[in-house]
């Protein structure tokens, strides 16, 4: 039988280890109900300036949780009239990523596992919610659901994920230089990044 994690690969379990701790909402996290806005105007998930994007709008929830809505457009089809699974996973990923705002931590997706429970037709408004369940060192364990027909409707998609905390250098060192330079020349973008660097 092959090993789940071959030598040299990271441990990728989505189950928090026994000594994981509860997530802490940052003292300056936006109040529940506050729109979080985009972390980057050209983001495929949340950027208003991204013409090909999902234009997801997330709001702070209680504790370390967020809610968001995503409207499935014709450009998001996989099968005729139905949302593409990868697009739905992107919506879940973006919603999970916006949990960063509540902990004032910069983190990127390490692993994300999606369950597709119901087909999602074009024009559907997917009601998303996400929460952090546990933290272990730099690993942030979180889950998200997407419901149709309203915030209490049936669950169409759900995901469990591990996000990994990173420094702002993760982006500066790895992003394409044009976009990094433009972001660093934009005082609003720099302010947003700085807000995440200061932990209590
Ligand atoms: C600003 C926010 C934007 C939000 C947008 C929406 C979210 C996104 O889509 S982000 C984009 C997609 N994600 C990426 O591009 C990430 C690409 N991957 C990487 O850069 C690296 O693999 C990275 C940073 C995740 C981890 O690398 P590195 O910093 O070297 O971590 P490393 O030291 O190996 O591991 C740290 C811990 O995380 C764990 N870990 C690492 N990778 C994974 C993984 N894939 N799954 C689970 N756990 C992992 C390790 O096991 C280790 O745990 P422990 O501390 O218990 O030993």
UniProtKB/TrEMBL annotation:
Residues 81-150 form the Thioesterase domain. Keywords: Apoptosis, Cell membrane, Cell projection, Cytoplasm, Fatty acid metabolism, Hydrolase, Lipid metabolism, Membrane, Transit peptide. GO terms for biological process: fatty acid metabolic process. It is found in: Cell projection, Ruffle membrane; Cytoplasm; Membrane. Its main location: membrane. GO terms for molecular function: hydrolase activity. Residues 1-25 are annotated as: Disordered. Gene3D superfamilies: Hotdog Thioesterase. The keyword Transferase does not apply. It is a peripheral membrane protein. PANTHER family: ACYL-COENZYME A THIOESTERASE THEM4. This is Acyl-coenzyme A thioesterase THEM4. It comes from Streptomyces reniochalinae.
């Amino acid at each position: 039988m092959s090993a789940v994690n071959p030598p040299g690969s990271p441990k990728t379990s989505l189950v928090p280890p026994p000594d994981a701790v509860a997530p802490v909402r940052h003292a300056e996290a936006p109040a529940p109900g506050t729109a979080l806005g985009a972390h980057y105007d050209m983001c495929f998930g949340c950027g208003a300036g991204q013409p090909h994007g999902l234009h997801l709008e997330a709001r702070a929830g209680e504790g370390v949780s967020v809610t968001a809505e995503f409207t499935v457009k014709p450009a998001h089809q996989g099968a005729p009239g139905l949302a593409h699974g990868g697009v739905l996973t992107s919506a879940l990923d973006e919603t999970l990523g916006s949990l960063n705002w509540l902990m004032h931590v910069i983190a990127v997706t390490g692993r994300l596992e999606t369950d597709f429970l119901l087909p999602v037709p074009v024009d559907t408004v997917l009601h998303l919610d996400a929460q952090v369940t546990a933290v272990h060192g730099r690993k942030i364990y979180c889950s998200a659901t997407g419901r149709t027909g309203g915030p209490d409707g049936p669950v169409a998609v759900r995901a469990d994920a591990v996000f990994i905390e990173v420094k702002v250098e993760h982006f500066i060192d790895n992003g394409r230089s044009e976009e990094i330079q433009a972001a660093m020349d934009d005082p609003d973008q720099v302010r947003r990044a700085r807000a995440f660097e200061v932990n209590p």
